[in-house]
Amino acid sequence: MEKHMLSLAGLGRRFNATRAVDNVTLDIRPGEFVGVIGRSGAGKSTLLRLINRLIDPTAGRITFGDTDVTALQGRALRQWRRDCAMIFQQFNLVERLDVLTNVLVGRLADHGFLSSMAMRFTDAERTLAIRALDRLEMAPQALQRAGTLSGGQQQRVAIARALVQNPRIMLADEPIASLDPGNATRVMEALRSINRDDGITVLVNLHTLDTARAYCHRIIAMRDGRVFFDGTPRQLTDDVVRDIYGTDGLAEFDAAITSTAAHRRLRQTA
């Protein structure tokens, strides 16, 4: 599969008078593992939703190689969302369906209308889904109803669903925010494995600083909708972090540090 640069040029999104994302220009190289950090409301989630085209920009462009992502419509837009898989904080599984069927939902973009409505999948697709679940250590739960799983298990099922899309880019919006440290580690290790072994570009919004430093090749920090920092984990010093969160965000900064310490302790004992 040909690899392309993901480029954002002057990207912006307004909600009435609020600039949720403001003039963001970035180049994301193929195979990068990029962490996005910042205060609540800094624009992190909006940025990922813009890239996936779940919402439309009010300014700027998104390109992937020669493709103008901001101009895509209809089937081409559905194909982009297949190529640019999205993982959500709240998992977005259908709780009444079994785990295997939830993963197979990731294949619907390749189906016609009738087979999508009937949820008809081939044996090859079922094999692909089982392999993805096995990779996430969730194959034994394949026939279990998704709503009976723990939060960490549900998030791994969501990653398996994204994986069967055969994406070029994987976006993860606060995928560990609601998880305990043990499950958070399992999810981050799964994303790192996908990035390393499959060469898939990963962009992940994170609220724990140590997680960003431990897993990401590159860290982007947002503040008030703008890119405030773009560099390596080593360059993300404590002084830079204080500037990112600002004096009025010290409580959130302290919470990030506390969560970071708990995650570090668990990694040391794992």
TrEMBL record:
Enzyme Commission number(s) of this protein: 3.6.3.28
Enzyme class: hydrolase
InterPro entries in the record: AAA+_ATPase (IPR003593), ABC_transporter-like_ATP-bd (IPR003439), ABC_transporter-like_CS (IPR017871), ABC_transpr_PhnC (IPR012693), MetN_ABC_transporter-like (IPR050086), P-loop_NTPase (IPR027417)
Keyword ATP-binding assigned: yes
Ranges where the ABC transporter domain occurs: 6-249
Alphabetical keyword list: ATP-binding, Cell membrane, Hydrolase, Membrane, Nucleotide-binding, Translocase, Transport
GO molecular function term, any single one: ATP hydrolysis activity
Lineage: superkingdom: Bacteria
GO CC, alphabetical: membrane
SUPFAM superfamilies: P-loop containing nucleoside triphosphate hydrolases
Protein name as catalogued: Phosphonate ABC transporter ATP-binding protein
